[in-house]
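Query form — protein AAA family ATPase

QUESTION: What is the three-dimensional structure of this chain?
INPUT:
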Amino acid sequence: MASTIVVHSHRGGTGKSTVLANLALLLAAEGRRVGVVDTDIQSPTLDLLFRLPPGDGSLTDYLLGRCEIEAAAQRAGVPGLYVVPGRTGIAGLREIMATGYDVGLLPEGFDRLVEHFALDVLLLDTHSGLGNETVAAMASADTLVIMARADRIDLCGMEETLSLAGRLACRRVLVMSMAPEGTDRERVRRLAEEVYRAPLAGLLPYAPEMAALYGERIFAEARPDHPLIDEFRTIISALDARDEVSRA
Ligand SMILES: Nc1ncnc2c1ncn2[C@@H]1O[C@H](COP(=O)(O)OP(=O)(O)OP(=O)(O)O)[C@@H](O)[C@H]1O
Ligand SMILES: [Mg+2]
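ANSWER: The structure tokens for AAA family ATPase are given below.
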């Protein structure tokens, strides 16, 4: 049965799309069939990160009734990896904001992708905060990966996300991102488990090598032997270890 993993953070710029793209590549490289949907139709990123050519549609086109969601999925990088971009061009955003759409199309579209591409994993990227697409994605999650920088402002926002996640029937794990050098991993783990009641799936350091890619390549593809890749693999193990991950 496919597992739907949603990556979210309350604040923007925590590294959601970066983490999701790396997990997607590593999972597909292991031979799993992976679907990715960029539900961040306001500020989509995955078309850029995966360097997708203009295709036959996007999530926005699907929501506007202009294409089937399967037609919007593009093969990306590794065999078995399919990516649905959030949007192509700016006109779609103006239009969807003016007309709205049936939110029920989102879970229906996710199910269709899983079935059509025989997916093992569906990864959903989200816009920060709690808009329609984000809440619909979270409601479809088997596992919610909540990301935050080790920063008081991010951590306060995380409580809001956790309070919503507590009402959803999904597992949740935390990933701390852009941790400064010298961050005490055990302290962060205790904080996650005791204060946020969710296991720490990963602690990603601030990596200047990652910033230096300028979003032009995905780290796992550009630097497959970098130690940071082990941290992404640790996150994958935590996502796989279903029994060890608490339910909300
Ligand atoms: N661990 C890291 N170390 C250094 N830079 C990072 C790290 N993770 C991500 N970045 C950089 O931070 C920027 C923001 O990352 P990203 O776009 O993945 O965040 P996001 O949470 O998806 O943002 P948004 O909320 O806008 O969707 C990018 O330029 C990315 O290359
Ligand atoms: Mg993003």
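ADDITIONAL NOTE: The chain has a mean pLDDT of 91.
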